[in-house]
# Entry
Amino acid sequence: MRVTIVGTGYVGLVSGIGLAERGHQVTAVELDADKVARINRGEPPIHEPGLEELLRRHVGHRFRATTSLGEALHESQVSMIAVGTPVDGVRIDLGAVTAASRQIGSALRDFPGYHVVTVKSTVIPKTTEEVVLPALESASGKQAGRDFGVCVNPEFLTEGQAVHDFLHPDRIVIGSIDQRSGALLEELYQGFQAPVVHTNPRTAEMIKYVSNAMLATAISFSNEIADLCSRLGGIDVAEVMRGVHLSEYLTPALPDGSKVRAPLASFFEAGCGFGGSCLPKDVKALVTQGKEAGIRLRMLEAVLEVNAGRIDEVIRLLRRHIPSLAGARVTVLGLAFKPDTDDIRESPGVRIVDRLIAEGAHVTGYDPVAHPHLNGGPGAATLAQTLEAAVAQAEAIVIATRWEEFRGLAALLRAREPQPVVVDGRRLLDPASVARYEGIGRSPLT
# Structure
């Protein structure tokens, strides 16, 4: 099939390349001409394992980028809206989704055949029916369900493994306004080995939000338990969760008697909080929609409250060794919100950097892939190019992201004197491997 993808961020680019890998002809639409040129040269604008290899394989053949939505859409049977839906702190901004809907509608005005418009962006329930569909009808002068189809097809991609997730989905959710729309979209996914869930648009939208809210809840639950463990003394939350993970719920037995750790178990681990482009904004959006519907979502409010407090816990651990952080040389390892990505949106590492700067510390940041401009003004923070350089002069080191490279920190510090304090915000290291260790959810007997 011929597919148009509107938006070349994580979702749009990965989805487009994934569909090309499955044999479809894909055109990605992007307003930024420089970004279009870069993509057409086979240079992905984001870091995602496996993405560059697939882009170079298909660009110029099954995949291309353009700034012309009209040209792209008139060659396709399906279009996908994959633009951003940021949160202003309270509710999501539908500006880009609305604009894309109007542009697609305008292109559909002279479209001779049947076309299915698919919302891939994460939007709150009712958005497709109450925002996207009216915009499409108004701009096209046509009627949804008769002249064109409309579907919601949420993504379930994990940054750092998004290419694999797209090519090997655990589910395909299709929320359609009618059977014809859903049937055409399901045809697009022929060859994907995954159960297909057919439902209405608003239910499909809710499935996406609830999926992310569940993961965020698991993380904040684990972090709340971590705080209790650290205050009681003599209990290590890492050991607690290791025991919890052995439950059949998280480590089920296979027919041959062997056991496998469920992916969900990784969310039941303590640390310095969740970030990224999905979990924080999606939970906030659900809380806001609940308030607008007259329902207070107390549990999700608590999820956000616990997550906001993770930076305070890191600072508390640092102050056990350095009571005044003013003038202290502190290195933060990990600026991407998680490993195997360069995404720094809502990153705990960046938030820790900002907090340390506010406390008057001399901050150095390091990440193997993410290279952001650190806040705080000239001289307030520096960005190291190697792990060795990052920790060379540090009095304290904070691990904020679980990059595999950071497992080598203990060896780097072995000959150092005096030894810096290491605050392990991801429980990555063996506590015995460094001389001065502080870990989230861990404290000695008192």
